[in-house]
Amino acid sequence: MRSGTMSRNGNNKFGIIFIVAIGCLAGCGPTEAEAGRAVMLATPVALGAFLGLMQLFLWLWRKNKPELTMDLKPILIALGITGFGALWALLGAAYEVQQIANTTYNGFAGVMEWVPAALLGYGPTYLVFALLTWRIWLWLGPGTAFSWSYLPALVALWIPCPVMASGLTENWLEFWSGAWIYPGCLGAVTLPVLIVLVLEIIIRNWLAKRKKKSSHES
């Protein structure tokens, strides 16, 4: 048992889910603090990927709707906040190494062990929620969809992380590990959603171009 964290024994089942997700084998999973910190480290990467996708979709959609715009300030501020959170998570892990330096436990290594799992599990889940939010938002309020659609999924999935990373929680990991992994299914859900969204706008642009060509010919 480590000070400020719960025993690994209660986390074995969902820890194994993390391990299977990256094709590894191990006998126990992360602590609540390790999981929270790993997701905090993965979040800026997921946000950056979403920003790139929004730039792609903005370029595609403006072929048919040139009035669409994207204000980069909101998502760049979010990247700054989550980047600071990632730094805080690393410093917390490093501090734990110093506090327990007389044992074999290494807090930094313990967190970094789970970052690949967080990227592969949490990353696709964040993206699928954010993409679906963006598409609904684009339908309801196209003027702000590209600027703010990242926020609901970020709030829902990231907010628990600092609390868990602080070692203030018990029995949160069983719920949140499933919430971070299952919806995106390691990209098995995210990729088809992305393909459908790309095909949608390609077909829309093709139909609009065809209609415009037909009207000119008539």
Structure description:
It is a single chain. This protein has 218 residues and is mainly alpha-helical. 71% of the residues lie in helices and 0% in strands. The chain is built from ten helices and no strands. The radius of gyration is 21 Å and the shape is elongated. The model is unreliable at 1-27 (pLDDT under 50).
Could you write a compact summary of the structure shown?
This protein has 218 residues and is mainly alpha-helical. The protein contains ten helices and no strands. The chain has helices at 12-21, 32-61, 73-99, 107-112, 115-140, 145-148, 151-158, 160-165, 173-181, 190-217.
Topology record:
Layout: H1 12-21, H2 32-61, H3 73-99, H4 107-112, H5 115-140, H6 145-148, H7 151-158, H8 160-165, H9 173-181, H10 190-217
Helix pairs in contact: 1-9, 2-3, 2-5, 5-7, 5-10
Radius of gyration using CA atoms only: 21 Å
Largest sheet: none
Low-confidence stretches: 1-27
Number of helices: 10
How helix-rich are the residues, as a percent range?
A: over 70%
Q: What general form does the structure show?
A: elongated
| Beta-strand share of residues | under 5%
Give structural attributes.
mainly alpha; disordered N terminus; elongated; 218 residues
